[in-house]
Specification:
This protein is an alpha+beta fold and about 500 residues long. It has helices spanning about 1-25, 35-45, 50-65, 100-110, 155-220, 235-270, 295-305, 310-330, 370-440, 445-480, 485-490; strands spanning about 30-35, 75-80, 85-95, 125, 130-140, 140-150, 275-280, 335-345, 355-365. Strands 2-6-8-9 form a four-stranded antiparallel sheet, with no helix packed on it. Strand 4 (about 125) and strand 5 form a beta hairpin. Helix 5 (about 155-220) runs antiparallel to helix 6 (about 235-270), helix 5 runs antiparallel to helix 10 and helix 9 packs antiparallel against helix 10. The longest helix has about 70 residues, at about 370-440. It is elongated.
Length: about 500
């Protein structure tokens, strides 16, 4: 009976535990390992800021396609319906009677195609022995339809350069989107390695806190202040100094936790990702360092040749040259072939029902008060402005490349020094700790060694991240694509 009771209690406990776990699952934050490559891919495909240039490229693509319509025959149709009651007076002179007027009315009705359309009112009155007869023809209904076709001849010149301009602008939008992807990649890299740095500092601080908490919990301050102290025992002031060292690591742990939260939120924003998952970064392999040893001038030439923003500006200059050619074409006459067909049906018209004609049209704006001239001048000014912008970009690229290369070299050299200092700080820390535990050495030496180890750990995590970040920034400054295949980079769509 007792065993049955114990079994029922145990089953009840497991049931309550399972329900508690099940209820807590939706609110729990799941952690997942995410590589830098995956973060970049998600940012490229889901970041909202990249859609602006994508829409601009689509717009110029449609405008480029629309210019082809200027090369083909243009058709136009018009239809007009008239229905009103406006008298048309045909005053006819006759001899002394009304009889000779009847054949005239019959011929008019036959020409109109409908005798009922003629409403006549004959007013007879005497005037010098003759009769005046007035016939009133009234418009009742008319339908006019026209179909015309125009084939431009000289528009081929303007159409070609207009299409070229829109095509170059479309390519420029795509290249500028690629450059924005590079800028987005830099932000993702900084946030990603900021998260790695925060995780590393948090790990250092947790290890140190476990060590100090364990030591302080075992070593009570049983030794009075004025008595002889045994090796490994603590005076109250010595405990105070070790607690100060522990507080330093606590502050480091809090700061690392805050930095990790900020970096995680930044990554989620850049990737437009769900906030329910906690990102666990994976330290990537160190990028190739061959750019560090290359001459500065070659890196600048490489940057100008392959960076997408330079290529985009060159496309814009080409587009502006095409637009200048379009403005220049407005000075010349325009020739076109045309043909037209008219069809009329109804009452009240004394014209043919079907007419057609064709010919060659000349259109030449001889004088527009300087509008065409100033449009050409504005196009030339815009072209010179874009050339000046390209020259300014060359100067900025020189500064950017030399700064990126200098920072990468400094981070590499500094990291080597910091790693050596960290090795010495760790060895010094454990030396003074063992001296305190075995040889009754002063605790302040151990505390100072602990502070030096803390600073070396902070510097090590900082410069490890800077080593990666500066190398990637150098690659971005030069124009090298990183981590993702170029074909995938330029074909990613949301």
């Amino acid at each position: 009976m007792k065993r049955t009771c114990d079994s029922s209690k145990l089953l009840k406990f497991y049931a309550i535990l399972a329900v508690s776990v099940f209820i807590s699952l939706p609110s729990a934050a799941w952690s997942r390992e995410t590589t830098l490559d995956e973060c970049l891919h998600m940012a490229y495909t889901k970041n909202r800021s990249l859609t602006v240039d994508r829409y601009a490229a689509e717009k110029n693509e449609n405008l480029a396609l629309s210019t082809f319509s200027r090369l083909f025959v243009r058709f136009r149709t018009d239809a007009r319906v008239t229905a009103w009651d406006s008298p048309l007076d045909a005053r006819l002179n006759a001899a002394s009677s009304v009889a000779p007027l009847d054949p005239v009315l019959d011929s008019i009705a036959t020409e109109l195609g409908n005798p009922d359309s003629v409403t006549s009112a004959l007013d007879t009155y005497e005037n010098d022995g003759n009769f005046k007869h007035s016939v009133h023809l009234r418009n009742q209904f008319t339908l006019d339809m026209n179909v015309s076709a125009v084939q431009p001849i000289t528009d081929i010149y303007g159409t070609f350069f207009q299409y070229k301009a829109y095509s170059r602008l479309r390519d420029a939008n795509k290249l500028e989107a690629s450059r924005k992807r590079d800028e987005l990649a830099e932000k993702v890299i900084v946030a990603y390695f900021g998260l790695i740095r925060a995780k590393e500092l948090k790990s250092y601080s947790q290890q140190a806190l476990e060590e100090l908490d364990g030591f302080l919990s075992e070593k009570a301050s049983e030794t009075p202040e004025n008595t002889k102290k045994l090796p490994g025992s603590l005076h109250p002031m010595e405990r105070f100094e070790l607690e100060n060292l522990r507080d330093r690591y606590r502050k480091l742990a809090i700061q690392a936790e805050m930095d990790a939260r900020i970096a995680t939120e930044w990554l989620h924003t850049l990737m437009n990702d769900e906030r329910s998952d906690t990102i666990e970064p994976v330290s990537p392999e160190l990028p190739d360092e061959n750019l560090l040893g290359q001459p500065f001038e070659k890196l600048v030439e490489r940057s100008v040749a392959q960076r997408p923003d330079f290529a985009g500006m060159r496309k814009r200059i080409s587009a502006q040259r095409a637009l200048r050619s379009v403005a220049l074409g407005e000075f010349f006459p325009k020739f076109s072939l045309f043909g037209s067909y008219d069809y009329r049906v109804g009452q009240g018209q004394l014209l043919r029902e079907n007419t057609y004609y064709g010919g060659l049209a000349l259109n030449w704006s001889i004088w527009e008060w300087g509008a065409t001239y100033y449009q050409l001048t504005a196009a030339n000014t815009d072209l010179e402005r874009q050339k000046a912008e390209l020259d300014a970009m060359h100067d900025e690229a020189r500064v950017e490349v030399v700064r990126a290369q200098t920072y990468a070299l400094r981070a590499k050299d500094t990291l080597a020094i910091v790693e050596e200092g960290y090795t010495r700080a760790v060895a010094n820390y454990f030396f003074h700790k063992n001296a305190f535990l075995t040889e009754n050495a002063p605790v302040d030496r151990w505390v100072r060694a602990g502070i030096a180890r803390l600073e070396s750990q902070r510097n090590l995590a900082e410069y490890r991240s800077l080593r990666f970040i500066t190398l990637y920034r150098l690659k971005l400054a030069v124009g090298d694509l990183i981590l993702i295949d170029p074909e995938k980079l330029y074909r990613l769509e949301p």
